[in-house]
Amino acid sequence: MFDGRATAETGLRGAEEGEIVGTTAETDVTSLISGFEQLAERFVSGLFARAAALSDVPVEFENLRASLAAGGTSLLALLFEIVLVVALVAGVFILFAGRFKKVAAASSAWRRFFAGVAAAVVALAVGFIAARLLAGSGAPLQTLRLWTVATVLGFVILAAVRSLLMASRRTEFAERSVHLAALVRDLSLAIGLAIIATTLLATLRLWSVGPALGDLLRTGLAIPTYLMFAWAVWRHRRTMAAAVAGPRPRSRWRTRLAKMWPAVVIAFVVVTFLSAQAALTLGTSLRGPAVLVTALLFLAAPHLDAMIGNWAQRGLESPDISILAAAGRQTARFTVVAIMIAMLGTLWATPLAAGFGIDLREVAKGASGVALIMLVAAFLWNVVGTATARALRAELPAVGDDEMLGAPRSRLGTLVPLISGIGKSSILALALLSILVSIGINVWPLIAGLSVFGLAIGFGSQTLVKDLVSGLFFLIDDAFRFGEYIETSGAKGTVEKISVRSVSLRHQRGALATIPYGEIGKIQNFSRDWMIEKLTFRVAFNTDVEKVRKIFKKIGQDISANPELAGDLLEPFKSQGIAEVEDGTLVIRAKFKAKAGRNFMIRRAVLLAVHQAFRENGIQAVPKPLTSNPGAA
Questions:
Q1: Phi, psi of 592 (to 5 degrees)
Q2: For residues 603 and 613, is the Cβ–Cβ distance under 8 A?
Q3: 8 A C-beta contact, residue 512 and residue 505
Q4: DSSP, res 408
Q5: CB 396 within 8 A of CB 413
Q6: Residue (of 446, 460, 319) closest to 386 by Cα position
Q7: DSSP secondary-structure letter at 597?
Q8: What pLDDT shows up at residue 599?
Q9: In whole angstroms, what is the distance from residue 254 CA to residue 58 CA?
Q10: So what's the pLDDT on residue 367?
């Protein structure tokens, strides 16, 4: 009875808990739906509020004129002064930038960079002096200084965008620089309009313009700016995709990114515009400079990566640049990406973290440690990759010689990829463990667990251990290399891939066989050093054997004199006399010695010459008789 009562109480308690869980889930769903309804109501009310506020635009405009009058100026006078200062600053910048560019044209890139900085400083100084002369003090002076800084900053941004896009073009499409120049021109117009709109909104805030007039101007300036951005990208989508693709060879993901990039940029422009309008409707606003900087970073990222990729590729191919310097160029791509992520985090994540009460110093300290570890790991990774690429470049023939691309590699060319894979895996593992240690995670239990797990795999997978050990000894013995034609107990073909556990052989008919090292058995290597090719010819019994010998000798001399075949021929083609007599047929054998893997062309030339000589000298070849099957009757 006690057990039954306890069971009943337990079931009742479980039912009550189930009802509580169900009630909690329903409450969460209801709260979520209620939150969406409140957000929708707030959005709709914000739209009506923005529309109703348009009636206040005339009043706020009059207030603006009153503020300008109180500041000792008028709207037309201020506009005239702004245009005058902008024209003066732009003219000075263009003039000095052109002169400094001519002076530093034959200099290094750093001197040209500092020449541009000097032109910007001179233009700023002239603009500040002109602003001081036109407006004595107060808000008018601050306005002119704001437009001076915006003008210089705009020219710097436009120059950087032009340099970035022009430097990211591929060398094989250098003749298409006209299309790239058109892309730069249209994007410069869109960026210039965005800078003007941002500066104008900052000027309105400086004069304390009302929200209705500010909202009207913000929306009215945003629409043509975003449309111009989208139009420029769509008009030059192919040129932009070619610039993003970067130099050859490029990875598959880079090609896909290049094809999708114009659509991604247009989608980003549309989403940014809708987000800004939604924020205004909900009573908040996105920061204009943050949006502009984010857009510039987003647009410039792949082009900057392509430009640095060209620079790094030149360092990789140049024998005058050391491995460490070339690896540093490769690491620069990772560094630029990290800097961009840090800038975006500073722009957007910092206000969010401050709102949640997160200690930004601790976050910055931890992020700096992780970034330093990743930077060192990336440099070491690129050192290994650069050393591997240069070693393989020295081993492989020039691209374009299709016949030589499949030639066997040396022992170094075979072992380098395996050593590179092991080195990169070790760097990645150490980097991950170091990152875990830097963020305060104890990695020793993880290391111990992995050790026990690896030991269990070692005891339980004897076949795997056998394959690894066998492969190690095969590579130590130099039994085969990349590109060599070998035959094992189970397959034969050209060595196409060598991994830690198996080797892949490509048959001459195209089939690919993957053989674990433990199952290879005996290996016959047909591509090592040299080989003797023996040929058999069946002729009539009354054939003059001495004549055949002279014909073969003449063929051997002709082939030895052929410059395309002489380099691979080690011993000339010659007759070995009568090997045997079969059913009234003379079997004559001949041979030649050639480099391993290069005998096929010589064999083809020999057979063609023998066939032609037999026809010219009336020597009759006899086919091999078919063997009859006694059981067929």
A1: -150, 155
A2: no
A3: yes
A4: P
A5: yes
A6: 319
A7: T
A8: 76
A9: 53
A10: 75
Q: What's the average pLDDT block by block, 10 residues per block, for the chain (633 residues)? A: 50 51 58 72 79 82 84 85 91 81 58 78 90 82 91 87 68 58 85 88 85 82 88 85 70 80 84 79 68 72 74 76 82 80 70 59 74 86 82 55 48 66 82 81 67 56 67 72 79 80 81 81 77 83 83 86 82 83 82 80 86 84 64 42
Q: What are phi and psi of 311, to 5 degrees?
A: -60, -45
Other CB atoms within a 10 A radius of the CB of residue 469 amount to: 12
Position 48 scores a pLDDT of: 81
Strand 524-525 with 530-540, pairing: unpaired
Q: Map tokens 């009943």 to a residue.
A: 8
- Calculate the alpha carbon distances from 617 to 299, 544, 555, 556, 612 in Å: 76, 11, 13, 17, 9
Angle at 403 between CA 402 and CA 404, to 5 degrees: 95
Lookup: tokens for 223: 């629409």
**Which structure tokens are listed for 316?**
């990789």
Helix, strand, coil % (nearest 5) of the chain?
75, 10, 20
Judged on CB neighbours under 10 Å (0-12, 13-18, 19+), 594 is buried
End-to-end CA distance of the chain, in Å?
93
pLDDT for the residue numbered 631: 45
3 state DSSP class of 540: strand
CB 548 within 8 A of CB 630: no
Helix (H) or strand (E) holding 547: helix 545-560
Secondary structure (DSSP) of 58-103: HHHHHHHHHHHHHTT--HHHHHHHHHHHHHHHHHHHHHHHHHHHHH
* Angle (deg, nearest 10), helices 288-317 and 360-395: 30
Tokens found for residue 125: 């100084």
Closest CA to 298 of 332, 248, 236, 347: 347
- The DSSP 8-state label assigned to residue 30 in this structure reads H
pLDDT at 88: 92
Sheet holding 585-595, edge to edge: 530-540, 585-595, 569-582
Q: What angle do CA 263, 265, 268 make, to 5 degrees?
A: 110
* The predicted structure's pLDDT at residue 26: 61
On the CB side of 384, CA atoms within 13 Å amount to 18
User: Cα–Cα distance between 96 and 84 in angstroms, integer?
Assistant: 18
Is the preceding peptide bond at 572 cis, omega within 30 degrees of 0? no
Tokens of residue 449, six digits: 């667990």
> What was the pLDDT predicted at 432?
85
* pTM of the complete model: 0.54
pLDDT more than 70, % of the chain: 75
